[in-house]
User: What shape does this take?
Amino acid sequence: MRRSIPVAAVLGLALALTSCSSDTDASSDDTAAGGGTLTIWVDETRAAPVEAAAAQYEEATGNTVKLVQKNYDDIRPDFLAQVPTGEGPDITVGAHDWLGELTTNGVVAPIELGDAAAGFEPVAVDAFTFDGSVYALPYAIENIAIIRNTALADSTPATFDEMIAMGRAAGTQYPFLAQVGETGDGYTLYPFQTSFGAPVFAQNDDGSYTSELALGGDAGNDFAQWLADQGAAKVLDVSMTYDIAVQAFADGQSPYILGGPWMLDSFQDLDLAIDPIPSAGGEPAQPFTGVAGFYVSAQSKNQLLAADFLTNYMATKEAQVALYEAGDRTPALSAAADEVSSDPIAAGFRAASADAVPMPSIPEMGSVWSFWGVTEAGIISGATEPVAGWEKMSTDIQGAIDAS
Amino acid sequence: MSPDRPPTVPDAPVSEQKPRTADRVARLSHARDYSPGFFVKLALVALVDALGVYVVMVAWAQGSSAVAWIMVALLVLTNVVYFSKRALPMKYLLPGLAFLLIYQVFSVGYTGYIAFTNYGDGHNSTKEQAIEALLIQNEKRVEDSEAYPLAVVESDGTLGLAIIDDGEVLVGTEDTPLEVADDAVVTAGRITSIPGYDVLGINDVVNRQSAVAALRVAVSKDAGSGSIRTQDASSGYVYSSVLVYDEDLDQMTSTVTGTVYTPNDQGEFESSSGETLNVGWRVLVGFDNFRTAFGDSRYSEPFFKVLVWTFVFSIVSVVSTFFVGLFFAVALNDERLRGRRTMRALLILPYAFPAFMSFLLWKGMLNTNYGFINTVLLGGADINWLGDPWLAKLAVLGVQLWVGFPYMFLICTGALQSIPGDVVEAAKIDGAGALRIWRSMTMPLLLIAVAPLLISSFAFNFNNFNIIEMLTSGGPRFGDASVPVGHTDILITMVYAISGLDGGAAKNYGLASALSIVIFLIVATVSVISFRRTRSLEEIN
Assistant: This one.
């Protein structure tokens, strides 16, 4: 008898507390009379501007915005894992190439931009479009371009060979810098690949990607051969990692580096110009465009607030310019992009994006990365025979796509 | 304790003050005795209970009833054990058993469960959520449909939507399609009142936003003409559903093509022609993942190469670090050596430096054209340390030696110093030479102390993810494999790569779990066998 008392007490307490907790759950909906609560995941660079927009929103509507600052690399896996359990945020910041994975796993809801869609750069909206629906509010566009040290070269020629010749004439240690690394870098080398007419996936007429691989064939083999030639000439080098390339450019060892706005912080002492990427294979060199935006969770209980906040507070020129100032990426809203284009660096990246194509966000893209870069690195270092290696890579990627 | 005191604690202060009661208290159970100790115990158990009840509540709220019930059982058990006087041994065992259950049995069991599911990209959640996601994704805005100014209204507790179309106000609810509302008042483009309906303010809308977001008002009696919905309660668009779910038949129907999709046993909706919808759910798939790991030649061929290298890597790592550590330990154990302390401190340095950083640092130092090793130490040699299969393996073992030997040095130093000097002295008197003493006395005594540590070190290196991922990322790739696996990949990094956890492929937690189980079985078998064999060492003592 004595023993059963504490047991009964514990069970009773547990039940009482459980019922309390369900009461508080129910009442939290009622207390929303003063305003709902939106939970938003942001990374470090985006936190301040989003907070500014959130403050405006809180003042105007009486709703509360809870910002959760997360490491950018953790956002995607955490979002995928937490949304199905009902734990995730209402809104999260994210990149457009996550879209395939997020829709396949059913964790994002489409948002209706309505007439506001026309105010955005078309590529930004296209990038977030899947099967006819838009899945995020875009806020920034980023792409790589040639960053030029104006003290060492006065222009960037239109072809790769001419650029290398100018780079050599500058008399610096490297004519041109591009990161490769032991595991390769398909993203950075992509503009040269497209200049040979070998995009990763074939595109429909409306610019959306099909799941049909297009990087093989004669065009792909020509590119592979070109990679081998550049490797042999030491223009491209697998031991050139991101850190080494950025350091070498910052030290004035090359007039040109192929890179994106994320590098600019390291070059603050240099006088820079941003130029479009020269063509290596004759066709336009098309870098990938990455678009960043705000996704709404498919399990959000605050769909209305989320849509309201995004379309009415984050899609404004002020908010988008503030995001630009925090992260250096071209705003996705045309009006904001126009405003920041008075800065020659921003204008340069925008001009370089004229030929850019959205990075494929279809789920099949996930099967490409790990074969792609490594094959390129192998060809550049001479370990892989270019044409055979490139053809095997196409077969392996196709196999991985078929298997998944 | 000062040496002039006797080794046992003399008079405890309590017994000094109340000798008789103290004796009786010692024999009483804490369950019956309300001494300070009882209250300390009560407080501690209450704390545990509070945490446990919190876990139960959270688990219950999440719908994990299994976790909740297990937790309830554990709590009941805890309270019974600590308030009963008969369960004395359990009082000591329970914390250990509870942690064993939570951290070992549960995680292995859960990994085992995942290994039999198709959890991964496209099968991320439950069937309900997959259906919901499919319906959300396949509700499309009718092309070129206008944006209508909209208000949320209520009539007799039923929510409805009102829109302005060509200057006319139309209103409808979930059950009644849109119809013209006479005498509605529109001020400054906003609907302010409709006879028979309450126009909801923004706070009311926020309070009921789930219901508002889920509200669909048919445009007309013809179901095919679509329905009005809103995402921000101020503008509405006409949507039509491409997919319709029939709960009774459990099937999805496309309104565009008429195709019927029924659930298949892989957790997807599939049409009769084999076409599947893109969002699936998690289902049990039996031994499929194991079959893929061993039956699919894309995986099984690299698997055995990787398995062999994993054994080579972990055995060579343990043996090389052990002998280098032992060498320094023996050398620095010699009292004739000067500056032993300084040298010991220097040898510990690689151990004090975070291993994570060491790996990245070495990766930079081994860079072919810019690394310290090639440019400075080897005078500009062009040695492709991380790009050549054999050199990469050598580099991995070399870096592991650098990072690992200080640990062995530490444990060997400790073990050597614990070998009693008189035993060695006795052997010397018996005429044993230095080699003989080493072989028959020092080494076996040392091994008794360090053998279990060597086995655990083997198990650690078998899964030494960091060094491989940081230093080589498994590269260079196998030239002949069709999956992203390379010459220096060990099993755990191979699992990481082919299950897509590194972002290089579609995620497949099921396959990853199946392979983890295989690794677990290998490590467990090797460890059990080795521990059995170390017992024979102990007989020497």
